[in-house]
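Long-time lurker, first post. I've been practising inverse folding by hand and with some scripts of my own, and I keep getting stuck on stretches where the structure tokens seem ambiguous. Below is the full token string for one chain I'm working on. Before anyone asks, I'm not after the true native sequence, just a reasonable design that respects the backbone. If someone could post their per-position residues I'd love to compare against what I wrote down in my notebook.
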């Protein structure tokens, strides 16, 4: 994905980035609670499942949130939007141009 984000969207995204990361981490913690609450499973089994979840989700966090800069902001926004990490109200703060670009990328078939 090429092109820089407009300055106004970049300012908004810097705030949304923090919110989306918080939501993503909360989802992970909720999943951990769900896994750990299965008292019928041995502790070691639950531990291994939690460990696997954290490994997988850490890769997602890296891909969605790390190396965050203006030149790859649309890519990060696409990743956030595809995982429903932004509310409609938050997403609507972005310019129509940026939302159209994100929508186009999300609708593009994978080759």
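-- Answer (accepted) --
I ran through it position by position. Result:
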């Amino acid at each position: 994905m090429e092109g820089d984000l407009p300055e106004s969207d970049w300012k908004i995204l810097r705030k949304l980035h923090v919110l989306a990361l918080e939501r993503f981490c909360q989802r992970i913690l909720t999943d951990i609670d769900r896994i750990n609450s299965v008292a019928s499973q041995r502790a070691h089994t639950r531990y291994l499942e939690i460990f696997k979840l954290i490994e997988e989700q850490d890769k997602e966090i890296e891909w969605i949130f790390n190396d965050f800069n203006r030149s790859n902001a649309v890519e990060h926004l696409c990743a956030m939007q595809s995982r429903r990490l932004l509310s409609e109200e938050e997403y609507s703060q972005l310019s129509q141009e940026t939302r159209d670009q994100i929508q186009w990328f999300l609708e593009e078939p994978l080759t």
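A couple of notes from the structure itself: The first helix runs from residue 7 to 36. The chain has one domain: 7-107. Happy to go over any region you disagree with.
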